[in-house]
Write a structure and sequence with these properties.
TIM Barrel; 587 residues; 16 helices; binds fe (ii) ion; 9-stranded mixed sheet; 3 domains; 31 strands
């Protein structure tokens, strides 16, 4: 999709001089220059192929009868936006996310396919790269940099060092993704250090993730060549990292929203903006509909007092400068790839037209570029390797009438702590208790086809459902089942076995909501609208049944996530993350 500048040198030069004519000229542009922090009215832009050849007050020397000339009528014209850290191996296919992003003016996505790699390894990485090719949006990738979080407990797949070295030979693979288990860096884990060295030797970038790191640990991390972080939640963390030479991606997405906290302090401290970007870190379908994408970050930052040109620069030029792509992308200038947005006003920042590589992809709020659906191989749609479930698979046996159990106590959808409660038994089986807000929770290894599984207890969930199952869980991808009774839990699990992945809610022997995720159990092959509707129904049903949290889908997603405190459930057992030991569900 992308040309190299060296191949176009002569022809671009000729158009700029008027010796050759442009394919497309945009005239009467109010050009937002990310290079000079000004908007320049009555600018004309000449494009040949996928690149800009001329920018100035009069492009008439580049026009003949074959040149398409569009009068922009004084509207704003700026470079396409980028999301410098996102996860697009979630919910919908890249072709579906491409449409939504382009409508928001986002022409480049920097994807970290950590979920697909954790399920399908290098083969999955290669397949996912293909899914992002030949779309009318630029998708850059990184090799996931955080897997596995803890080798003692984790089953997640990852790339070997030699696979990483092969992967970065692809020009769309820019380096290593968020190295989120940062203690592997400060403890100089052998494989991690070799990966970092390979990236540096090949001129690749390494994305960081330094939640909780400071002082000497942060210094050690930065000295290892990791130069960005999207984890700061306040200005002090931003400043400490900027002072150490890092770049900051201010996160505004479905996992966290940090703009409101950080932007006002950046303004009051008159902080240098050149190393600041916005990123989403992944968006769920409802958030894209409700907020938008990077366009939302620009609108919010402007509302918080940032100069519009600065917000646009953070959303474009700074991202490409960070990824060493500034010679090709990030601004509208001769030689640059023609990724261009046209919009009416700085309040809504709603693109009326979007060009990617000189081709019109959005016009009047609609996608006008063809988007082909790729054939997905069957192997990646068959990842739930589990035998048929029965109620027995969810039983916890005890001879006592009453028994003390350890629980995973939900503090938020994401953070847990160890709990303890007394439960009753019936016919030798320990029962969940709606009154005590204690539910059963189970994890099964669906990826490797082992019989590994564990059943425990979940406290403070609140939702009076029969069974809630999900195949999408960071980064173990175990089948997680939460529920009040063994029969409904088995039905929920069997439903996902049949659909080969997704989320499902069961109550009283009936399926009430389901979101099939057919591709690797994490991505739906359905259109965006259907996915967002199914996603909304799942969460609403659980919330309406009394769940204490507003985003219940995050609960099975984070329950096995070893990078967060404090009690996690994986198919190999229930883990105390800090003590790095297993816990028995019953005492
Ligand atoms: Fe991330």
């Amino acid at each position: 999709m992308t040309s190299t500048l060296s191949k176009s040198l002569s022809s671009l030069n000729s158009v700029a001089m008027g010796d050759k004519k442009a394919n497309l000229v945009l005239k009467n542009c109010n050009l937002i220059s990310v290079y000079t922090r000004e908007s320049i009215p009555k600018t004309e832009i000449s494009i040949l192929g996928d690149r800009v050849a001329y920018v100035g007050p009069d492009a008439s020397h580049t026009v003949n009868q074959k040149t398409a000339v569009i009068d922009v009528k004084g509207k704003y014209v700026c470079p396409g936006f980028a999301d410098p850290h996102t996860h697009i191996d979630q919910f919908v296919l890249p072709s579906e996310i491409a449409k939504k992003s382009l409508l928001c003016g986002v022409t480049s996505l920097f994807s970290d396919p950590i979920d697909i790699v954790s399920i399908a390894g290098y083969k999955g990485f290669q397949e996912f790269l293909k899914l992002g090719e030949n779309l009318p949006i630029r998708i850059f990738q990184v090799v996931p940099g955080g897997l596995p979080v803890d080798r003692k407990f984790s089953n997640s797949k990852t790339l070997s060092l030699s696979q990483e070295k092969t992967a970065i030979k692809n020009s769309n693979v820019l380096g290593l993704g968020e190295v989120f288990s940062w203690t592997k860096v400060t403890l100089r884990d052998s494989k991690t250090m070799k990966s970092l060295a390979a990236m540096l030797d090949n001129g690749c970038i390494i994305n960081g993730h330094t939640a909780g790191a400071s002082g000497k640990k942060l210094n050690a991390y930065v000295s290892s060549g990791i130069l960005s972080c999207h984890e700061p939640t306040n200005f002090d963390q931003v400043l400490e990292r900027l002072r150490l030479g890092m770049w900051i991606m201010i996160r505004e997405g479905s996992i966290r929203r940090d703009l409101k906290e950080i932007i006002p302090k950046i303004l009051s401290h008159n902080t240098y903006l050149n190393r600041l970007m916005f990123c989403s870190d992944g968006l769920d379908p409802l958030d894209i509909i409700k907020y938008g994408h990077i366009d939302h970050c620009i609108r919010e930052a402007i509302k918080l007092g940032l100069e519009p040109i600065d917000a646009i620069t953070m959303a474009s030029k700074n991202c490409f400068d960070y990824y060493n792509l500034g010679k090709d992308l990030g601004g509208i200038a001769p030689g640059k790839l023609a990724d261009i947005i046209i919009f009416n006003d700085l309040k809504s920042v709603k693109p009326s037209k979007v060009f990617v590589g000189g081709k019109l992809v959005v016009s009047n709020g609609s996608i006008v570029a063809p988007i082909k659906k790729r054939v997905i191989p069957s192997w990646i749609k068959n990842t739930v390797k589990l035998k048929k479930f029965s109620s027995k698979d969810f039983e916890i046996i005890s001879k006592k009438k009453k028994i003390m159990v350890n629980t995973i106590f939900m503090q938020t959808e994401i953070i847990t702590k160890l709990g303890s409660v007394e439960l009753e038994t019936s016919d030798g089986k320990v029962l969940a208790s709606n009154d005590k807000d204690v539910w059963k929770v189970a994890a099964f290894d669906r990826i490797h086809g082992t019989q590994n599984h564990v059943v425990g207890f979940l406290e403070n969930f609140g939702g009076n459902i029969g069974g809630f199952a999900s195949t999408w869980s960071f980064h173990e991808n175990d089948l997680i089942v939460i529920g009040s009774n063994d029969f409904d839990m088995a039905l929920a699990a069997n439903t996902l076995r049949k659909t080969q992945g997704g989320l499902v809610v069961v109550k009283s022997g009936k399926i009430h909501a389901s979101l099939p995720l057919q591709l690797a159990g994490i991505i739906s092959t359905d259109p965006f609208k259907k996915v967002s509707s199914n996603f909304e129904k799942i969460n609403n049903f659980i919330i309406d049944s009394g769940c204490k949290f507003s985003r219940p889908h995050l609960i099975p997603l984070f329950l096995p996530f070893l990078a967060l405190p404090s009690i996690r459930i994986l198919s190999r057992g229930i883990v105390d993350v800090k003590k790095r030991s297993y816990i028995n569900p019953i005492n």
